[in-house]
Write a structure and sequence with these properties.
The complex is a heterodimer of chains A (369) and B (358). Chain A has 18 helices and eleven strands. Chain A is α/β, with parallel strands linked by helices and 369 residues long. Chain A starts with 7 loop residues before the first helix and ends in a 6-residue tail after the last helix. In chain B, helix 3 packs parallel to helix 4. Chain B is globular, with a radius of gyration of 22 Å.
Chain lengths: 369, 358
């Protein structure tokens, strides 16, 4: 948008001239088709928002990864959330996007419409604040997200402990990127030749976990940011490595990401959480791919507090969200895309979340067939 | 924390639940001003109480009165904004301006309003007086009078302090035809100023964002600006105030009503830096944020420059910009051309995550 609209700290990374130069570099160095995966839903969203896919050489196929926490949260967890939110003594808090994700029977908006107390928060610490102001209520926070939200989710538990709050708990749902990369690259159906790693996850975790992954699967990985220039630069670096036959891990988001990451944040995560197996919607159980609460913090686990772990769910088989989330299919390959399945009438989670691949496709430029 | 995984994972295949489409109970998204509101109106209201006036789908109805050459524009709007006082405005000013603007969007000269108040038991009389004073000021500025009213009080807990409904009446001069259905290929699209100020100001006033800024609501009566514009340029085809759902939703409605497409130039769309930054932080798109004092004008290309001049010279239009044009192909589509030379589709706002903003 105009000069008066772009904040100074971002304007350089949205500079059309610089972006066009980087894109012409990509055009110059590419000689054959390549399939890249951007792992993060935020990246998918930005690619669609700025129409960057329209400007890239036809040889590049961008496969949209399972990096939208809202989309990969399992139905079982959503059903638990709905059940907990319906309890009369509960104030259920969540990031806004989760409210529209369908469980087996309704969504959090329906729970709210039928009298449940469901509140949107912008930070898990807001949920702690709500708990301290409502001592007669049980306040539950739906702790979704990748490694990016994990430090704040952990901090909420620590803060609640420090304040001595007996009425605060979280529904642990954090998922982890590196195990998902292993799962995708190790799948017999894998088509990914290069990875754009999720910049904000790496801001927290660093990228020390990636060289063994790149080595094991002979796949270059570039830590990539979210602005147009970040994205085309990440793509350029990946394509250069692929064309030259190099397998390395590069950091194209060095203004934010260091190799070691944010160690204070990692310490907080380690203190509160431990890796647990987690079921990803559309992918299945990936070993050690989620954060569960450590034994000493189990009092803050809503699953234990409300006994919601016994809820049984059954997924129906309608849309191709599973393949979309694994990068096996594009949203526009789905027969329901843009017709039966739209953001206001979603069949699958990727169409629900603003970071979901289908929603990004729908909003930003792919006409329904 | 990495787990080396040599065994391939089992792939479960397609799996996704069919969600509930909220046809059984009203949810907050039905009040978003976007697609869900539109569906509710179409499926539940128009199918039962529809008529030629409602089906025009404009901000106000155009009524023909026997024996009169001029037509009457009528509109009604309920105001439930929370909080009731926010930087740059309050529910009183909003309830006058919102209805004045809806009437003016047909090219009518708003003259009279009615006001209905639903008050919650316990609501402060001092706050009530402040709201009524604010309504009086807004009426004076707009040149309208409140000529009928109603007051109801409900028990504590049955409302949120105060809700205000206003209805507005104005005269459309003979033969003037302005409405969302009249956009023509070749027309230019103008916006009278920066987008998203009201939405962010109200959100911020709720004190839940964890940051502060100087963003104030743009709530304002636009009828004088419109009168000046139409006096000089009667050829205007469409006027619309992009309130709930923002610029994108309003233009999408117009594109559907007129069966044309609208192409916008992203670089020319004005958004204030602090609104832009707030939207960046919160993951909102300013093109979908609510405005209460902005005007979309669609008119023949050859009149665009002089119209822009007039709008820029009026009090509420100093940041006006020409932002796009109307085309014949791809009817019903709104397309945004980015600075990088790519294009994306703008659809209606789909649901509602935001609190009550008007």
């Amino acid at each position: 948008m105009t000069d008066i609209s772009t904040p100074k700290f971002l304007s350089g990374f949205r500079n059309a001239g610089l972006v066009k130069t980087a894109i012409s570099e990509i055009h110059k160095c590419i000689t054959q088709p390549w399939s890249l995966m951007e792992i993060c839903g935020g990246q998918t969203h930005a690619i669609m928002q700025y129409g960057l896919d329209q400007l890239l050489p036809a040889e590049i196929e961008l496969i949209h990864g399972p990096g939208c926490p809202v989309c990969v949260t399992s139905l079982a967890l959503i059903d638990q959330a709905l059940w907990i939110a319906k309890q009369p003594e509960v104030i259920f808090t969540s990031f806004g996007d989760m409210l529209r994700v369908p469980g087996s029977n309704g969504d959090l908006f329906s729970v709210r419409a039928s009298g449940g107390q469901v509140r949107v928060v912008y930070s898990p610490l807001d949920a702690v604040e709500i708990a301290s102001k409502n001592p007669d209520k049980q306040v539950v926070f739906f702790a979704i997200g990748f490694e990016t939200t994990a430090p704040a989710n952990a901090m909420a538990v620590l803060q609640a402990e420090k304040m001595g709050l007996q009425n605060f708990s979280i529904l642990p749902a954090n998922v982890l990127v590196p195990p998902a990369m292993h799962a995708i690259l190790g799948s017999p159906d894998n088509r990914i030749q290069g990875f754009l790693a999720a910049g904000h996850v790496c801001a927290v975790m660093g990228y020390w976990e990636y060289p063994p992954i790149a080595e094991q699967y002979k796949t270059p990985i570039v830590v990539t940011g979210f602005e147009p220039l970040d994205l085309v630069n990440g793509i350029l670096q990946t394509i250069k490595m692929l064309e030259e036959g190099r397998v390395e891990v590069k950091n194209a988001y060095s203004r934010v990401v260091t190799f070691q990451g944010n160690q204070a944040a990692q310490e907080i995560i380690k203190k509160v959480f431990e890796p647990v197996d987690r079921n990803w919607r559309g992918i299945g159980i990936i070993p050690k791919s989620g954060f569960g609460l450590r034994e000493i913090y189990k009092n803050f686990n809503a699953v234990e507090r409300f006994g919601s772990g016994d809820i049984k769910t059954e997924e129906s088989k309608i849309c191709i969200a599973g393949q979309v989330l694994q990068g096996l299919k594009k949203p526009s390959d789905c027969p329901a895309f843009g017709t039966q399945c739209t953001p206001q009438n979603p069949l699958g989670a990727p169409m629900v979340s603003s970071e979901g691949a289908c929603a990004a496709y729908y909003r930003y430029g792919k006409k329904p067939r | 924390m990495t787990q080396n995984q040599t065994k391939p994972i089992s792939i479960q295949g397609p799996m996704c639940p069919v969600p509930h489409h909220h046809t059984e109970a009203v949810v907050i998204g039905h009040g978003s001003g976007g697609q869900m509101t539109s569906d509710l109106i179409k499926n539940n209201f128009q199918s039962r109480i529809g008529n030629v006036y409602l089906s025009e789908g404009n901000d106000a109805a155009r009524l023909f009165v026997a024996g009169l050459n001029d037509q009457i524009a009528v509109s009604t709007d309920s105001h439930v904004v929370s909080p009731i006082f926010y930087p740059g405005g309050d529910i009183g000013r909003l309830s006058v301006c919102g209805t004045v603007n809806d009437v003016a969007m047909l090219g009518a000269d708003p003259k009279y309003l009615t006001a209905g108040f639903i008050l919650e038991e316990g609501f402060s009389i001092e706050s009530l007086n402040m709201i009524i004073d604010s309504m009086a000021d807004a009426c004076k500025e707009a040149g309208v009078q409140i000529v009928a009213g109603d007051t109801k009080v409900v028990e504590k807990g049955k409302a949120d302090g105060i809700f205000i409904n206003t209805a507005g009446f104005g005269v459309i001069p003979h033969k003037r035809q302005i409405g969302g259905q009249f956009a023509q290929p070749g027309d230019a699209v103008i916006i009278s100023g920066s987008l998203g100020d009201h939405g962010i100001a109200v959100l911020q006033a709720r004190g839940e964002l964890g940051f502060e800024s100087d963003i104030t609501s743009d709530v304002a009566p636009l009828n004088h600006m419109i009168a000046e514009l139409l006096e000089a340029i009667p050829e205007v085809h469409v006027l619309r105030d992009p309130t709930r759902g923002g610029l994108a939703t309003s233009l999408k409605e117009i594109a559907c009503q007129s069966e044309i497409s609208i192409r916008l130039n992203e670089e020319s769309i004005p958004v204030k830096p602090d609104v832009r930054t707030a939207c960046e932080m919160l993951g909102f798109d300013p093109l979908y944020m609510a405005n209460e004092g902005k005007l979309i004008v669609i008119l023949p290309e050859e009149k665009a420059e002089s119209a822009l001049e007039i709008i820029k010279n009026s009090h509420y239009g100093t940041n006006a910009m020409r932002i796009g044009a109307v085309f014949e192909e791809d009817p019903g589509m709104v397309l945004l051309e980015t600075a990088f030379g790519s294009t994306r589709i703008l659809d209606m706002l789909s649901g509602e995550i935001l609190p009550r903003i008007c």
